[in-house]
Write a structure and sequence with these properties.
- The protein is of the alpha+beta class.
- It folds into two domains: about 1-30 and about 115-325, Distorted Sandwich (Beta-galactosidase, Chain A, domain 5); about 330-760, GH92 mannosidase domain (GH92 mannosidase fold), CATH 3.30.2080.
- It has 19 helices and 35 strands.
- A nine-stranded antiparallel beta sheet has the order 8-9-10-11-20-15-14-13-18. Strands 21-30-31-35-32-33 form a six-stranded mixed beta sheet.
- Helix 5 packs across helix 18, helix 9 packs antiparallel against helix 10 and helix 9 (about 435-445) runs parallel beside helix 12.
- It starts with a helix and ends in a 15-residue tail after the last strand.
Length: about 775
């Protein structure tokens, strides 16, 4: 007992000393391209809780608690497993689940909030022998003290019980720094650090790996091949360069079950064990550079970004980097819980897409060749989710970063031939549906985000329609395109595999993309392209069934596909939701969707029932067949009340969803985070603005804080709502720079210049905003 108490005191002291150096905002020179340390009185990083979204096995949220910089290449974090059995795929997609009892080790690259695992490469783990057992996970994994976990932006720490080691992680953009403090001396006087290159996340095979030992350095690569990285690119080769400090007394390597002093290994089951003399309090540092180009790139990233910086300096720089980004949305007032949820939601919105250019600008392109970029090239775009919330948020408050992301997508289309739907590494995963890159890039242009040739970007969008990918191309293109162009919808049975093959979803998603194409073409003066794309974007009407008030699948002859049930997937006509939930997926044309219901009153009644029935289900702890916040197709639905002349219902249901689905707890998100899509919804709704997809229009919701200051392209936009709070969710009036708004929407250009958007709040429903008007030019 005495030893354990002593160990806890040592761990607490280590944490306190490290934290004290950072909380004043006086960190070391920044390694993440932040111009200067942050010194403001409020540190938004202190509000962030990265452990939010790491629990809730039934929800499959899939956030990770480890160290990452904004949009960084490296995301170093613990991979966990239950004490019995294998970790389930659905809730281990980021490697970590708070309910697990064991930590397997700390891997360096991963996705955030996806439903399917990938990566989890280059695993390190401190251990105490016997060495032969350390070549398998059951030999080096460890229980951990959950009360010892600390997760902060750019920092993670935990006490591992088996070796009695305090493990701490921090990161730069392309490298990670581990610090392992042995709290007690092993009986043997020796401690180890295990490198397992056969490790990847659950159900992700490693198809090749190599390592080479040179003194205190181990370098090589590992090749995981998951659902995202495998199909078109054959996996994603992750190169690494690891340097230990102090130098180990010896490094052994293994292949399968053979452990010896060989300095080079190759295969799928390989790794290394570095040995160190250990006394109580001994510390081992591991500096790890990552690259997707080559070993030289990994080494260069490590040397350039870590150099000889110590752990505390690196941690402080990471904290400052996050403070810089989080300060783009500065909020005041609100409860402590609300502030934590807001800060963490913003943090989650800025984790991915991931940087892939090395410090010298090199990256591997969609043609599998090495290129050099003069901007930060990124990958890991979950655009079917993020086009709805994440990218519009970046257009508003981080337009320079969104420029990097749009330029990355354009570069992918140049080198691979077409925009991806979902991007990972240098291949086309061909999952989900639609053409979301058209929306992301098109909206960026419409909102004034620069840095790319708009006409070229538009040409690449139209290429997928006019010159679709030929057979054998790694990009599957717009499945069902011929039927879509001929009929206005993708007919049932024209997409392989499956009977339905999500044809309703494909039609609706193509419509949203085509609206972006149309608006972009119009702004560029390309009127013929604008007109034809406008026609495509309206074809959702062909699938509307007024007898059921939902979008239904049609056969090629125009007949309705049968049998039909609005509460189920109907032979795969829909994607991750049912017909009722997809009946609101016309985010680019709220007025057109309203008119399909016959009258504004009928529209509002149908929409209100949709939410009321969902609330009944959620209140009883049941899964909803109506509105589902955990899946993205209908997360914009509550803003549609504006088109029906009932802004009070938008405000009511936005307030309900914000409080129902978000909390400062490990399971405090409603479901799969989807690369920040759900968190960005919360941020936008707290600001009081929500995007109309494929346009430059922002809808007016209700602000959740008395004051929010946004860093926009032209300065600062202040959302001023002095009476905002839980007792006053309704909007009585809105002015922009002193001028009353006549309609519940505003153009992006009117916000991007900065100024004051002032809300008068009330505890009673108001009529302001009941005149929706029209934004068509």
């Amino acid at each position: 007992m005495k030893t354990r108490l002593c160990s806890k005191r040592v761990a607490a002291l280590l944490c306190a000393l490290s934290m004290a150096a950072c909380t004043a905002g006086t960190g070391a020179p920044d390694t993440a391209n932040v111009s200067s340390p942050v010194t403001r009185a409020i540190r938004y990083t202190k509000l962030v809780q990265p452990l939010i979204g790491t629990g809730g096995p039934a929800k499959n949220i899939n956030c990770f608690p480890g160290a990452v910089l904004p949009w960084g290449m490296v995301a170093v974090s613990p991979d966990t497993t239950p004490s019995t059995g294998s970790p389930p795929t659905g809730n281990h997609s980021a490697g970590y689940l708070a309910d697990d009892e064991l930590i397997v080790g700390f891997s360096h690259v991963r996705l955030q909030g996806t439903s399917t695992p990938d990566l989890g490469s280059v695993l390190l783990m401190p251990a105490v022998g016997p060495e032969p057992s350390l070549i398998t996970p059951t030999g080096y994994r460890s229980g951990y003290d959950k009360t010892s976990e600390i997760a902060q932006p750019g920092y993670y720490a935990v006490t591992l019980q088996a070796p009695n080691v305090r493990a701490e992680l921090t990161a730069t953009r392309r490298a990670a720094l581990h610090r392992y403090t042995f709290l007690t001396a092993p009986a043997s006087g020796t401690g180890e650090v295990v490198l397992d290159l056969s490790h990847a996340l659950v159900n992700v095979p490693v198809t090749a790996a190599e390592l080479h030992v040179d003194g205190a350095t181990i370098e090589g690569f590992t090749l995981p091949s998951g659902r995202f990285s495998g199909p078109s690119a054959g996996g994603l080769r992750v190169f690494f360069s690891i340097q230990f400090d102090p130098a180990p007394t010896a490094i052994s390597t293994w292949s399968n079950t053979t452990l010896d002093d060989s300095t080079t290994r190759s295969g799928t089951k390989i790794g290394a064990i570095a040995r160190f003399p250990i006394t109580a309090g001994s510390q081992i540092h591991a500096r790890v550079g990552i690259s997707y180009v080559d070993v030289a790139g990994a080494r260069g990233n490590r040397e350039a970004e870590l150099g000889t910086l110590d752990f505390t300096a690196t941690r402080c720089a990471a904290n400052d980097a996050w403070e810089h980004e989080l300060s783009s949305v500065r909020f005041e007032g609100g409860t402590a819980a609300q502030s934590t949820v807001m800060a963490t939601a913003l943090y989650h919105s800025f984790v991915v897409p991931s940087l892939v250019t090395d410090v010298d600008g090199r990256y591997r392109g969609y043609d599998n060749a090495i290129h050099t970029a003069d901007f930060d090239y990124h990958t890991n775009f979950s655009m079917w989710d993020t086009y709805r919330t994440v990218h519009p948020l970046l257009d508003l408050v981080r337009s320079d970063q969104q420029s990097n992301l749009s330029r990355s997508l354009i570069q992918m289309a140049r080198e691979g031939g077409y925009y991806p739907r979902w991007s990972m590494g240098h291949g086309y995963p061909n999952i989900t549906a639609g053409s979301p890159a058209d929306i992301v890039v098109g909206e960026s242009f419409l909102r004034g985000v620069g840095g790319f040739d708009a006409n070229e970007a538009l040409d690449l969008m139209l290429k997928e329609v006019d010159n679709p990918p030929p057979p054998g191309h790694p990009h599957s293109g717009r499945e069902g395109l011929a039927g879509y162009l001929a009929n206005g919808y993708v007919p049932v049975g024209t997409v392989v595999p499956g009977v339905g093959s999500r044809v309703v979803v494909r039609t609706l998603e193509y419509n949203v993309a085509d609206a972006a194409i149309s608006h972009m073409a119009s702004a560029l003066g390309r009127n013929a392209d604008a007109a034809r794309a406008q026609g495509w974007s309206q074809s959702y009407r062909t699938l509307w069934d007024p007898s059921t008030n939902v979008f239904r699948g049609r056969n090629a002859d125009g007949s309705w596909f049968a049998p039909f049930d609005a509460f189920n997937a109907n032979e795969g006509l829909y994607y991750g939701a049912n017909a009722l939930q997809y009946s609101w997926l016309v985010p680019h044309d709220p007025s057109g969707l309203r008119d399909l219901h016959g009258s504004p009153e009928a529209f509002v009644d149908h929409l209100d029932q949709f939410f009321a029935n969902a609330k009944i289900a959620y209140d009883s702890g049941q899964r909803s067949s109506y509105y589902t916040h955990e899946n993205e197709p209908d997360i914009q639905a509550m803003y549609l009340f504006l088109a029906g002349g009932r802004p009070d219902l938008t405000q009511h249901w936005v307030d309900w969803a914000s409080n129902q689905f978000y909390a400062p707890t490990r399971d405090g998100l409603p479901g799969n985070e989807d690369a920040g899509a759900l968190s960005a919804w919360y941020v936008l709704s707290a600001i009081g603005l929500y995007p109309v997809s494929s346009t430059d229009i922002w809808l007016i919701g209700r602000p959740a804080f008395p004051k929010i200051s946004l860093t926009v392209a032209g300065g600062t936009l202040v959302i001023d709502a002095p009476l905002a709070g839980p007792t006053r969710p309704y909007v009585a009036a809105v002015t922009l720079n002193g001028v009353p708004l006549a309609h519940p929407w505003v153009r992006h250009a009117d916000l991007a210049g900065g100024g004051i958007l002032r809300f008068e709040m009330s505890d009673q429903p108001q009529t302001w905003g009941s005149d929706f008007g029209s934004w068509e030019r």
